[in-house]
């Protein structure tokens, strides 16, 4: 006879037929304050280990987990222990249990001071017995694994099974931190009096005048996916919005299979009118970045440490005010280190990396601005330098030696803009609406675009932008 048969089992599918007044406690709330309380919790079976008349479970909810014990006694039968031990990993269960203080800290769980003594357990959603990848393999620290015969999971396997990979504590931490970057970006700019705007992603002409665009059919004609909200941000400045920002998808048809390129990513874009000098824009953007770095440091320490356990890196360093170097100074530093390059040559990726290391050695910062880029390597709408037209009022910002923002003072004069577009062989007909928006008076303005995934990758010291893109798109990946 099984006296506990009503205390465990597989629940009928939740189809909203009734609403229980049962309160479910969050795993992260299971602390000593809840000692000796009878509670309900819903979580996943992370691991289970049967041992004689008892079974130890680790219950996981997002990045938190707690140990639970099902043991033969007044409340649990032998059959109930066996049932609990046989629940497939990753299944979702409802558990009624008493919270008990433990003698010795449970180092392997986030809730180290308590465990749950299970009185009832019901399966709410069953996982299939064979998982395409094991969560413990997914969180093994970098460099561990293969040698000691334990598996590590390669990136394609993770991305093919992204839903399971996203359940790991590391992934949970990365994307909670990413959510924080967006919120800090918004809050900081709102406090500075910016207006959030939404811009069209289906456009009639390649926004940058470049070739790296995706073409989509648009009724009887063709359209393009926007490479950036650039032209629309500027049109909003011409329309007297003064300071604007937007957060949205950006598309780049670049066949780049590198650690830092995606064909679709999230752009954090800023544009603002300034009074006398485009350095007002640089200061506004660098201050926003510093507020983001401080906010992450102060509010997301748990997430930073969680990611660091699997992917160790040096803490991110920044200065106040932000270091600003001129392009020629950067070139001089590189030449001193033995690099041969011309005054007006663009920085290659290896040279960006090297310059980042040189700047870190000299100034002890991972974040800096490189100002006054050569005009020849910048888009047509970039304002030339007033004293030397080989250079321009444009800048890039770098984190750990990789570019995260490209920006400039824009040309706000229709005549000069037309000349520069012709110089770049751009079809004027296709950007007519853009040029026309400057014919009726436009304030001097500038801005820049930041790649969200890149910022998260570099802040955390990760090595691949796919780790910070929830469902990444690159030239070889369109699913899931």
Features of the shown structure:
RNA binding; eight-stranded mixed β-sheet; 480 residues; elongated; single chain; OB fold (Dihydrolipoamide Acetyltransferase, E2P); alpha+beta
Can I get a quick summary?
The protein is an alpha+beta fold.
Walk me through what this model shows.
Its EC number is 6.1.1.12. It holds the Pfam family tRNA_anti-codon. Keywords: Acetylation, Aminoacyl-tRNA synthetase, ATP-binding, Cytoplasm, Ligase, Nucleotide-binding, Phosphoprotein, Protein biosynthesis. Catalyzes the specific attachment of an amino acid to its cognate tRNA in a 2 step reaction: the amino acid (AA) is first activated by ATP to form AA-AMP and then transferred to the acceptor end of the tRNA. Its main location: cytoplasm. The chain is α+β, with helices and mostly antiparallel strands. The protein has 3 domains: 121 residues, Beta Barrel (OB fold (Dihydrolipoamide Acetyltransferase, E2P)); 31 residues, no CATH class; 300 residues, Bira Bifunctional Protein, Domain 2 (BirA Bifunctional Protein, domain 2), CATH 3.30.930.10. An 8-stranded mixed beta sheet has the order 7-11-12-17-16-15-14-13, with helices on both faces. The protein has a 5-stranded mixed beta barrel with strand order 2-3-4-6-5. Strand 9 and strand 10 form a beta hairpin. Helix 5 crosses helix 7 and helix 5 runs antiparallel to helix 8. The longest helix is centred in the middle third of the chain and has 23 residues. The protein is elongated and about 90 Å long. The two termini are 48 Å apart. The mean pLDDT is 95.
């Amino acid at each position: 006879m099984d006296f506990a048969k009503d205390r465990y089992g597989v629940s009928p599918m939740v189809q909203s037929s009734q609403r229980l007044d049962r309160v479910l406690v969050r795993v992260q709330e299971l602390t000593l304050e809840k000692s000796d309380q009878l509670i309900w919790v819903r979580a996943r079976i992370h691991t289970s280990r049967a041992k004689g008349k008892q079974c130890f479970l680790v219950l996981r909810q997002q990045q938190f987990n707690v140990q639970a014990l099902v043991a033969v006694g007044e409340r649990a039968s032998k059959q109930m222990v066996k049932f609990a031990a046989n629940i497939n990993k990753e299944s979702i269960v409802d558990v009624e249990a008493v919270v008990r203080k433990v003698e010795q800290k449970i180092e392997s769980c986030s809730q180290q001071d308590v465990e749950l003594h299970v009185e009832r357990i019901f399966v709410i959603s069953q996982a299939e017995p064979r998982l395409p990848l094991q969560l413990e393999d997914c969180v093994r620290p970098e460099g561990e694994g293969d040698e000691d015969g334990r598996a590590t999971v390669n990136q394609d396997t993770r991305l093919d099974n992204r839903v399971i990979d996203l359940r790991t504590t590391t992934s949970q931490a990365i994307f909670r931190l990413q959510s924080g970057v967006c919120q800090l970006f918004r809050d900081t700019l709102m406090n500075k009096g910016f207006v959030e705007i939404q811009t069209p992603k289906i456009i009639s002409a390649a926004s940058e005048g470049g070739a790296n665009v995706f073409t989509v059919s648009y009724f009887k004609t063709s359209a393009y996916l926007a490479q950036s909200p650039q032209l629309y941000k500027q049109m909003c400045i011409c329309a007297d919005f003064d300071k604007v920002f937007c957060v949205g998808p950006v598309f780049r048809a670049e066949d780049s299979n590198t650690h830092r390129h995606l064909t679709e990513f999230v752009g954090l874009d800023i544009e603002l009118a300034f009074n006398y000098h485009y350095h007002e824009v640089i200061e506004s953007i660098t201050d926003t970045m510093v507020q983001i770095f401080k906010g992450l440091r102060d509010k997301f320490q748990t997430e930073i440490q969680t990611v660091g356990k699997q992917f160790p890196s040096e803490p991110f360093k920044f200065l106040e005010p932000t270091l600003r170097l001129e392009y020629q100074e950067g070139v001089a530093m590189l030449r001193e280190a033995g690099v041969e390059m011309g005054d007006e040559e663009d920085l290659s990726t290896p040279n960006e990396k090297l310059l980042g290391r040189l700047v870190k050695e000299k100034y002890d910062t991972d974040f800096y601005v490189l100002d006054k880029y050569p005009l020849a390597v910048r888009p047509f709408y970039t304002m030339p330098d007033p004293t030397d037209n080989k250079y321009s009022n444009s800048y890039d910002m770098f984190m750990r030696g990789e570019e995260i923002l490209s920006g400039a003072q824009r040309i706000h004069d229709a005549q000069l803009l037309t000349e520069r577009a012709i110089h770049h062989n751009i079809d004027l007909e296709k950007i007519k609406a853009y040029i026309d928006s400057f014919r009726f008076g436009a304030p001097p303005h500038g801005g820049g675009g930041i790649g969200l995934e890149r910022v998260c990758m570099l802040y955390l010291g990760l090595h691949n932008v796919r780790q910070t893109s929830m469902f990444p798109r690159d030239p070889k990946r369109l699913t899931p």
